[in-house]
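Hi all, posting the design record for the shared folder.

TITLE: backbone redesign
STEP: 1 of 1
STRUCTURE INPUT:
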C-alpha cells in the first residue's frame, strides 16, 4: 500500500484489492483516512469472501475517453479504427498497442486469473461474439460457432462483463403497446477492441464492420455519459417482434431519448421510420438520428445530427446534445 497526501488534513491512500481487510480496519478507527481502491474485476473478491465495504464506499467506473475530452482534436475516423482507450490513443503506434492489448490483456490476463480453463475455446468465443457487437445476443448461436456448451458461453459473457470488457443493453418495455423481443444487445466496451477482435476476410464488407463500430462508439459514449451523471438514467434499445428497431433509448429521471445511428452521409426517408414508430408509441420522447453527414436537419419531426457533432457535445454537465 502506498499513501500520500492530497489535502494535508485528510490523508489519502491508494490500495490494491488484497488490502481490503486492512482498509476496513482503518475505516473503523475513524481517523479521517480516505482510500481509493482500484481494480478491473470484483469477481475474485466476491469468490474469496472478501469484505467489499458495502455502504462505506462509492463505486465509480472510469470509461474510455469521450469525444468532448479531445475538443477539436477529436477525429471520428481515428476513433472508429483505434477506439478511445487512453493507452491506445496516447501511443505513438496505436495499432500495435491495440493488438497487444487485445492479446495480452483480454486473453492472457483472463487465463492468469484462473477464470478460464480452456483458453483456446475462450479465444474462439472472443472472435465469435464480436459478430454480435451491436446486435441481439443469441447465446446458442455463439455456442455453436465456438463448438462449446451454451452454459460455458454464458459464463464467458459474464467474465467479460465482470472485467468491464463488455456490456449488454436490455429491451425497453415501459408501457409497451407492441410486442417486443426479449434478448439483450451485446457490445464490447470500446470500438477499437471490437475492431481488433473482429475477424475480417474477403467476404466481409468494410461498411458493415464500420457500421457496427460506429454504433458501438455511440453506445460507449452513452454509457460513459450516464455513468458520469450518476446513473440517473438507463440505456436500452427497442425492437418489436415485427423487426422495427431503435438502436438506443435513454430513459430516466432526466431524459427520454430515442437514437438511431446510420453509417451514411445521406438520409433516406425510410431511415426515420423506426423513430417515427417509437414516437407514436412514446410521444414524450425526443428523437435523434445520427449520421455521417455535415448538417443538422429536421426530417419528419426527427432531429438528424452529424454523429461527430453529437459525440462532441455529449458532455456529462449537459443534458441536451
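Okay, here is what came back for every position:
SEQUENCE:
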Amino acid at each position: 500500500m502506498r499513501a500520500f497526501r492530497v489535502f494535508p488534513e485528510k490523508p489519502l491512500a491508494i490500495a490494491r484489492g488484497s488490502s481490503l481487510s486492512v482498509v476496513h480496519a482503518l475505516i473503523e478507527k475513524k481517523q479521517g483516512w480516505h482510500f481509493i481502491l482500484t481494480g478491473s474485476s470484483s469477481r475474485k473478491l466476491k469468490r474469496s469472501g472478501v469484505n467489499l465495504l458495502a455502504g462505506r464506499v462509492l463505486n465509480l467506473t472510469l470509461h474510455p475517453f469521450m469525444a468532448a475530452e479531445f475538443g477539436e482534436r477529436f477525429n471520428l475516423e481515428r476513433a472508429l479504427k483505434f477506439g478511445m482507450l487512453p493507452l491506445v490513443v496516447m501511443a505513438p503506434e496505436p495499432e500495435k498497442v491495440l493488438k497487444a492489448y487485445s492479446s495480452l490483456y483480454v486473453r492472457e490476463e483472463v487465463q492468469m486469473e484462473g477464470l478460464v480453463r480452456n483458453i483456446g475455446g475462450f479465444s474462439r468465443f472472443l472472435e465469435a461474439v464480436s459478430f454480435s457487437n451491436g446486435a441481439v445476443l443469441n447465446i446458442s448461436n455463439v455456442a455453436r460457432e465456438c463448438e462449446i456448451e451454451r452454459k460455458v458461453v454464458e459464463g464467458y459473457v459474464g467474465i467479460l462483463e465482470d472485467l468491464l470488457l463488455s456490456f449488454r443493453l436490455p429491451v425497453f418495455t415501459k408501457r409497451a403497446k407492441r410486442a417486443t423481443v426479449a434478448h439483450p444487445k451485446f457490445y464490447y466496451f470500446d470500438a477499437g477492441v471490437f475492431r481488433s477482435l473482429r475477424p475480417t476476410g474477403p467476404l466481409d464488407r468494410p461498411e458493415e464492420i464500420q457500421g457496427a463500430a460506429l454504433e458501438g462508439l455511440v453506445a460507449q459514449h452513452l454509457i460513459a455519459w450516464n455513468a458520469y451523471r450518476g446513473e440517473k438514467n438507463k440505456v436500452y434499445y427497442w425492437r418489436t417482434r415485427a423487426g422495427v428497431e431503435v438502436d438506443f433509448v435513454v430513459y430516466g429521471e432526466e431524459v427520454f431519448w430515442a437514437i438511431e445511428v446510420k453509417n451514411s452521409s445521406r438520409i433516406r426517408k425510410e431511415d426515420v421510420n423506426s423513430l417515427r414508430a417509437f414516437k407514436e408509441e412514446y410521444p414524450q420522447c425526443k428523437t435523434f438520428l445520427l449520421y455521417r453527414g455535415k448538417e443538422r436537419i429536421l426530417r419528419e419531426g426527427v432531429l438528424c445530427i452529424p454523429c461527430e457533432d453529437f459525440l462532441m457535445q455529449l458532455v456529462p454537465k449537459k443534458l441536451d446534445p
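COMMENT: The chain has two domains: 2-47, 67-313.
Let me know if anyone wants the other runs.
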